[in-house]
């Protein structure tokens, strides 16, 4: 048995040697090869692991794709885009508005730039309430996201509230503060109003139309169509021209955003993260001081907080400021160690004979109520010799460029024609009468003065009137102040300036029986084309 095994192994060795291809063998005889193989064994050095059977490698797993939620998008436009829900029908009115926006990309970039600080807080509040994200685009239609926008219909702010509706939804309007221009407060009020309108009509297009023209008008249009047997959808209603274009504007913007690739449009990116943070103070704060302590420029801070009309927040509140995150932290750190009396500069005023709270308030650009509050005064009685603490601005009032007074001054100073005159409003004046008197457009006259045509005219307020080169008519009046000289009488002054004695009496609240004192100043409304203005 052993001999058989040996022979078998020998045969295998010989067979193995013979299996080498001929072209790889050295030129030797077969016997010589056998002798070499016997004398020098060949050792296989292949590693054992290589000879063992190997497990097949597992197939590569496909990469896991995690889809971002709308809230995780980097650009807030995409966050809005992914949540648009209102159907957009094929309508020529939508097409017309869409074409307008597509032809004016620079306009949309300006709008996006103004929207950047506020868009995140608006979107967050819309999502929190579960409302259509199309509503985030509504301030574009209303105001182009300009918080200082003021329309011919007395509507103000990015959401364009008129005074009545604003007060109905909790927005105060007073000398210090206009809640319509407070983006934070007006956003909450606008979404409350829109929610109420949608609950009323159970139709978002009807609600949007009512936001523009009023719920009563939309209800009336619906009833009219029902009586006539006509459809009552928005597109079938007989509504004002402005409203008929208003809803299509919003839907056109939504369509462009939803199909950006189709229209090859890319709006200016707005980062999808909080831009502004709310800081609450315990008392009235000077905006210039808040800017200084937060590290912001005054105009920047006032633009974020456009609801404040003057140099400070309203003494009665709100005392809320919106600031970029880092600046908010700086201000908050200072407020933790500051006393409420440190938030404005205080002036000690000695009451003079004849002074009233209103006179003192005008002198320091504050209100009688603020002085009463600061000094715990009940009523309006003050005595000469008393001392009052008056809250006053820390900087020159001209530095508060975005206060109501400075904005009005800038508006009235804009060149609108070749020749400017100033008209001081008298009791009974109306825009209609003044537009006819000066031969100018009524709406333009109101716009030159930062007003709406329906705004009331307050006696004593100056209005600017711009005229063309060829329209300087006779009868243009100008308000002047004349200093009474020795020997003057009402009759002599009236004759000199070609006015009536009764008018001088009315303008100055005096009677002809009163004696004129040298040095006394009289207000006169004179025709600048018929008398000199150097008197």
TrEMBL record:
InterPro entries: LysM, LysM_dom_sf, Lysozyme-like_dom_sf, Transglyc_AS, Transglycosylase_SLT_dom_1. Residues 347-390, 421-465, 480-524 form the LysM domain. One of its GO terms (biological process) is peptidoglycan metabolic process. GO terms for cellular component: membrane. GO terms for molecular function: lytic endotransglycosylase activity. CDD domains: LysM (cd00118), MltD-like (cd16894). Belongs to the transglycosylase Slt family. This is Lytic transglycosylase.
């Amino acid at each position: 048995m052993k001999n058989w095994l040996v022979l078998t192994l020998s045969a295998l060795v010989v067979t193995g040697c013979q299996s080498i291809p001929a072209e790889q063998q050295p030129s030797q005889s077969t016997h010589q090869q056998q002798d070499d193989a016997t004398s020098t064994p060949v050792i296989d050095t292949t590693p054992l692991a290589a000879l063992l059977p190997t497990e097949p490698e597992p197939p590569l797993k496909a990469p896991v794709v995690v889809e971002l939620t709308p809230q995780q998008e980097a650009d807030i436009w995409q966050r809005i885009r992914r949540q648009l829900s209102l159907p957009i029908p094929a309508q020529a009115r939508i097409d017309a508005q869409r074409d307008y926006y597509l032809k004016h990309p620079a306009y949309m970039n300006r709008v996006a730039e103004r929207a950047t600080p506020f868009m995140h807080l608006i979107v967050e509040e819309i999502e929190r309430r579960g409302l259509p994200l199309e509503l985030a685009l509504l301030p574009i239609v209303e105001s182009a996201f300009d918080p200082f926008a003021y329309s011919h219909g007395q509507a103000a702010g990015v959401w364009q509230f008129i005074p009545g509706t604003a007060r109905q939804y909790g927005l105060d309007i007073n000398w210090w503060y206009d809640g319509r221009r407070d983006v934070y407060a007006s956003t909450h009020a606008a979404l409350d109003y829109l929610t109420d309108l949608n609950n009323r009509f159970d139709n978002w297009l009807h609600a949007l139309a009512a936001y523009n023209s009023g719920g009563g008008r939309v209800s009336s249009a619906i009833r009219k169509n029902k009586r006539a047997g006509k459809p009552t959808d928005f597109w079938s209603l007989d509504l004002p021209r402005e409203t008929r274009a208003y809803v299509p504007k919003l839907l056109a913007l939504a369509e462009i955003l939803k199909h950006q690739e189709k229209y090859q449009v890319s709006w200016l990116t707005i980062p999808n993260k909080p831009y502004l943070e709310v800081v609450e103070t315990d008392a009235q704060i000077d905006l210039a001081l808040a800017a200084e302590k937060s590290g912001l420029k005054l105009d920047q801070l006032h633009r974020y907080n456009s609801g404040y009309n003057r140099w400070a927040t309203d003494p009665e509140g709100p005392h809320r400021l919106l600031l970029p995150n880092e600046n908010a932290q700086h201000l908050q750190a200072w407020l933790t160690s500051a006393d409420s009396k440190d938030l404005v500069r205080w002036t000690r005023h000695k009451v003079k004979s004849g002074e009233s709270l209103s006179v003192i308030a005008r002198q320091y650009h504050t209100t009688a109520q603020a002085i009463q509050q600061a000094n715990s005064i009940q009523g309006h009685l003050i005595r000469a010799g008393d001392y009052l603490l008056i809250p006053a601005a820390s900087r020159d009032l001209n530095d508060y460029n975005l206060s109501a007074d400075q904005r009005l001054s800038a508006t009235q100073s804009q060149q609108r024609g070749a020749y400017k005159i100033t008209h001081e409003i008298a009791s009974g004046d109306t825009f209609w009468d003044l537009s006819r008197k000066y031969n100018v457009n009524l709406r333009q006259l109101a716009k030159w003065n930062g007003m709406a045509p329906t705004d009331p005219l307050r006696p004593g307020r100056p209005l600017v009137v711009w005229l063309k080169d060829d329209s300087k008519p006779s009868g243009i009046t100008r308000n002047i102040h004349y200093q009474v000289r020795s020997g003057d009488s009402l009759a002599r002054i009236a004759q000199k300036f070609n006015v009536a004695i009764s008018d001088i009496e009315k303008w100055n609240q005096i009677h002809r029986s009163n004696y004129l004192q040298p040095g006394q100043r009289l207000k006169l409304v004179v025709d600048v084309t018929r008398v000199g203005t150097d008197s």
